[in-house]
Amino acid sequence: MTASKLGGVARPGTALALQGGGAHGAFAWGVLDRLLEDDLRLDAICGVSSGAILATMLVQGLMRGGPEGARIEMRRLWQRVAQAYALSPLQSGPLERWLWGWDLSNSLIWQGLETAMRLFSPAQLNPLGLNPLRAVLDDLIDRSLLTHPTAPRLTVAATDVETGRAVLFGNAAIDTEVLLASSCLPFVFPAIEIGGRAYWDGGYSGNPPLEPLLTPIPPAELILIRAQPERRPGVPTTPAEIMNRLNEIACHNVLASELAALPGSVRLTSYDADQALLDLPISSKFNGQAEFLSSLFRAGRAAAARPLARPPTVAAAE
Questions:
Q1: What would the pLDDT profile of 98-126 be if each residue is shown by its tens digit?
Q2: H or E stretch at 258
Q3: What are phi and psi of 148, to 5 degrees?
Q4: What does pTM read for this prediction?
Q5: In 10 A of CB 192, how many CB atoms?
Q6: For labelling alongside 294, which of 25, 101, 127, 135 has CA 20 to 30 A away?
C-alpha cells in the first residue's frame, strides 16, 4: 500500500495491532496467514503478550522472505510452542477431550495448579522464574532482522509493575526478556526485571496500546486482531474464571477508549475472535496442544476470508 502525505510528512499505509491471549493467539496467526496470501504490507505493528511474540516472528519473516517468509516464520513459532507443550503434564487425553473438549479445568493437574496459584505467590511456586517459552524464544529470535533498516516499526508493550503504565520497546530493544515481560502472567511467573524495573503482561495497561501506531502520523488503515472475546454469556463462578473475565473487561475498556478517540481519517478493520473463543474457558489459554492450536488457526483463516463491512475512509489532505 502506498503512503500518502500529511503536512509534507509520509503517512504510514497500514498499521497492525495484535492482542494477547496466550494460546488463543493462534487465532491471530490464522488471520494473518490468510491476509498475507493477499500480499499484506505493513508499516507499523504493536503487540502485547502472545501478540507481541507473533508480531516479532511476523517482522522477522517479512525480512527473510516477504509475506511467504512471514507465514513460514509464524508457523515455526506455533510448531515450537506445540513441541514444548508436548512435555507438559497439563494435557487432555482422548476421553477427557471427548467429555470436555478443550476445557482443561476438569483435569486434576489444572485444579491443583489453580489451587496453588491462590495459596502461593509465583516467587514461592517458581523461585527460579523458569519459563518454557525462554528456550523457544532464544532459539527463534534474530535481532539482526528486527533491526534491519527496512523492517516495519515494531512496538512491544509491557506493564511497569510500580507505575501501572505501559512501557514501549522498539525494534532495537526487543529480545527474549522483553517478550517474556510482555507476556508475564503475575499469578504464574515472577515479574521480569529489565533495567532495574519490574514488568508484567502488557495487556494490563493496553491490549494492545494504539498510541505507538498513531504517532507521529496516523496510518491510513489500522488492522486490529483480537485474541480475546469481547462478550461472554453467563456469569463466571470459579475464582479463576471470575479473574479472567475481570481482566478481559478491563483490557477491552482500555482499548475501547482508544478506539473511540481514533482519528476519522483512519480506516479501522477489526477481526474479532468472539465466535471462535466464546465458549473457551481460561484453561484453554494454557493449552498448547497442536490440534487445539490448529483449530484456532483455521478459525482465524476463516474469519479473515469473510467479507468485512468497513466504514468509508475520510480523505486525508495531500
A1: 455 666 666 655 566 666 566 556 666 66
A2: helix 239-260
A3: -60, 140
A4: 0.85
A5: 23
A6: 135
